[in-house]
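User: Here's a chain of 330 residues. Predict its fold as tokens.
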Amino acid sequence: MLEPLRALASQRAVMRTCALCALLTLASATAYGQGAGLTLDTALYQATHRSAAIQASQSSVFASTQAAVKADQLPDPVLKVGIDNLPIDGPQRYSINQDFMTMRRIGIEQEWVSSDKRERRASLANRVVDKERAATLVQLAKTRQQTALAWLNAAYAQRALELTQDLLNHMTHELAATRASYRGAKASADDVTQAQIMRSQAQDQLLKAQQASRSALIVLSRWVASPVVEVAGAIPPLESQVGALTQQELNQVQPELLAAERDVSIADADTSVASSNRTPNWTWGVTYQQRGSQYSNMVSVGVAFHYPFPARIDRIGMWLKKRPWATRRV
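Assistant: Prediction complete.
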């Protein structure tokens, strides 16, 4: 009674094992691109989605986008808490409610930046985002270009290897035919020697073609981030449409031109922000001060200006140096 059940369980275990092995084999072939060969479209897709440089550029775009969100906002307010005029000696030392000058205070300060400054900073931050996006396009174009070149090199090397193998097969048949003719007294020993030399040369060419094909596949494997055994698919026509584009169309589709245009716009925005910084910011603050129960509480209100005093001093010094009486000797 138990033997059939054990046999059935063993068969099911074997079937599960075989199914798991088949699934792992299929997944491995898919992951490493070893199936029927790597096509150009698949190589471009894998290189684009596995490139660490493109991922880093996309992270830079995300970081600059997050920074641009706060570019047009006011700085964070500052919460201030403290104790003023705390006695440290005498009978009232370290007491916070006996001396009339001792106060516990809590307040808030806010730096005020004009709307014009915030708009210019927001414009600069948005242009930085555009620059990072243009840099991502440049990296994407470079990755696709280098991957396509690597795939074309591998395809041509594979085609050359096939032709060289055909040449070797032809030279082998020619040598066999020449030997047969020599045995039939229809060819000389020199003909056999010449056929052997040509076959040896074909073998050398085959070894070189194999090495070139392996090297090209290794380079392609580096771009697609997986081992490549062979390439597949037809080689596309090597035609360029860039020559038919106008300058305006090139500025819209050429990544390098887009990046250069973004650099110019960032320089203009940076100059605008630097010009707006000539106007100083100001800060307002409100503080509530609590004293002992026998004393009155207080409130303080104040405004502070960021005055560029060192720059004013430099201007005054330059003005004094230009005066005639400033350089007169006594």
